[in-house]
């Protein structure tokens, strides 16, 4: 089994809603049967003893209630996802696919249902699994509590700030994971993808977005065959059928090399969060863009999203990215070279479209300026040129849109809340 196949199966489990509930169902059957066996060996207290008819009625009610509640949870989830994707972005669905609380809620409900079925099947004229009936009642109470927590979380996660915070946490975690990968001595980042005369060009056998790569497998392969591997496309790029995905330089290898290397590159229909921090940044920008559309006209949501975009860009801007593009020493080539996005690319992704679509909103341009001025003061010196360029473009945009407006002076100011915060004029801006 190739690494790509294992990755695909892991993604199906992470994003599927069936795996954990199935485990819950199996656990319910096993526990129900075990409790019934133990019940026959114990003397239960008088208060926990039931007649066969009462026990059957209670368990039948529990089975029906858990089945109905399971359907209600699915309905709530569908409605929440529909509202979230309509309000924020269709790519938000990936957060719901992976929500552990949703899967745990479904697993507990389905597990209670199968547990009650297993106990119900043990009831006879001369035997009642009293402990099992009582346990079923306790599980129903647990189901209700978990459902309340799940419903509360669904409501809270519909807030724009909560969605942006979730996506920003994912972006920060993925970026730190990428940094750990780049800190390895046998892996290096690069900004240029093409070199002359590779020994082997591995091409994609299908079109798709690069979802992830197997860094350990690629390093082992390169060291084993005495080669240097170059990945000309960063994770997240869409590659067409026949397009190069791995370039091999030097070394000795057989005819199966292309298939082996291709099995370490996972392609899919869309991007994922696993090794692609810019995908989370893309999602935040999409939320802000939709909020700034004329049909929605909600600039405050865009301002809240800018809070988290600024935080993510600040984390990246305080990182020495150039260090990860250098070899460990003279004459010591890296085993794997991965093409990555530049700091300028991340700044452009995070701010350009919001500046374009939010140019007519005074609070958006004020919050943008506050973000850029904060980044200018906190990022590494080599990253300031990109921020200064964004400030220049923001000045040009503001002057183009607000030149004849009485609020030109306000549009040229900086405000962490857009409007209502501690506003600061920007001397020399907009002149």
Number of strands: 8
Helix and strand content put the structural class at alpha/beta
* Total domain modules: 3
Distance between the termini: 63 Å
Alpha-carbon Rg, integer: 28 Å
Give the low-pLDDT segments. 427-431
Give the helix proportion (percent range).
55-70%
DSSP strand (E) fraction? Answer: 5-15%
Number of helices: 15
Largest sheet: 5 strands, mixed
Average predicted local confidence, pLDDT: 89
Shape: flat
H-E string: HHHHHHHEEEHEEEHEHHEHHHH
Organism: Agromyces neolithicus
Transmembrane segments: 12-38, 58-81, 101-120, 132-151
Protein name: DUF2254 domain-containing protein
Keywords: Membrane, Transmembrane, Transmembrane helix
What brief labels describe this structure?
431 residues; alpha/beta; Aldehyde Oxidoreductase, domain 3; 5-stranded mixed sheet; 8 strands; 58% helix
């Amino acid at each position: 089994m190739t690494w790509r196949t294992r990755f695909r199966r892991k993604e199906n489990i992470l994003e599927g809603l069936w795996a954990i509930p199935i485990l819950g169902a199996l656990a319910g059957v096993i526990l129900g049967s075990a409790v019934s066996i133990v019940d026959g060996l114990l003397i239960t207290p008088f208060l926990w003893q039931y007649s066969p008819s009462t026990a059957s009625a209670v368990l039948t009610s529990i089975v029906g209630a858990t089945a109905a509640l399971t359907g209600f949870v699915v309905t709530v989830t569908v409605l929440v996802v529909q509202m979230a994707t309509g309000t924020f972005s269709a790519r938000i669905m990936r957060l719901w696919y992976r929500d552990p609380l949703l899967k745990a809620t479904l697993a507990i409900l389905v597990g209670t249902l199968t547990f009650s079925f297993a106990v119900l099947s043990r009831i006879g004229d001369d035997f009642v699994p009293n402990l099992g009936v009582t346990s079923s009642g306790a599980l129903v109470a647990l189901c209700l509590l978990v459902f309340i927590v799940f419903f509360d979380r669904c409501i809270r996660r519909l807030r724009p700030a909560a969605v942006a915070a979730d996506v920003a946490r994912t972006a920060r975690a993925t970026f730190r994971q990428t940094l750990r990968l780049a800190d390895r001595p046998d892996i290096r980042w690069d900004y240029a993808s093409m070199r002359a005369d590779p020994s082997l060009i591995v091409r994609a056998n299908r079109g798709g977005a690069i979802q992830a790569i197997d860094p350990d497998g690629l390093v082992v392969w390169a060291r084993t065959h005495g080669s240097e591997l170059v990945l000309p496309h960063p994770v997240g790029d869409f590659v067409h059928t026949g397009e190069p995905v791995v370039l091999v330089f030097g070394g000795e290898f057989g005819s199966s090399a292309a298939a082996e290397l291709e099995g370490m590159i996972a392609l899919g229909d869309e991007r994922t969060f696993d090794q692609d921090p810019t995908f989370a940044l893309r999602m935040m920008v999409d939320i802000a863009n939709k909020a700034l559309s004329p049909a929605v006209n909600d600039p405050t949501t865009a301002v809240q999203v800018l809070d988290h975009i600024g935080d993510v860009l600040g984390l990246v801007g305080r990182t020495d990215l150039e260090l990860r593009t250098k070899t460990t020493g003279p004459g010591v080539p890296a085993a794997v070279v991965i093409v990555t996005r530049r700091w300028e690319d991340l700044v452009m992704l995070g701010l350009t479209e919001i500046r374009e679509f939010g140019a007519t909103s005074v609070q958006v341009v004020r919050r943008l300026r506050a973000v850029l001025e904060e980044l200018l003061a906190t990022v590494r010196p080599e990253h300031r040129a990109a921020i200064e360029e964004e400030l220049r473009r923001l000045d040009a945009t503001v002057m183009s849109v607000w030149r004849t407006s009485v609020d030109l002076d306000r549009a040229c100011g900086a405000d962490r809340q857009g409007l209502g915060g501690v506003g600061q004029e920007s001397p020399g801006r907009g002149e």
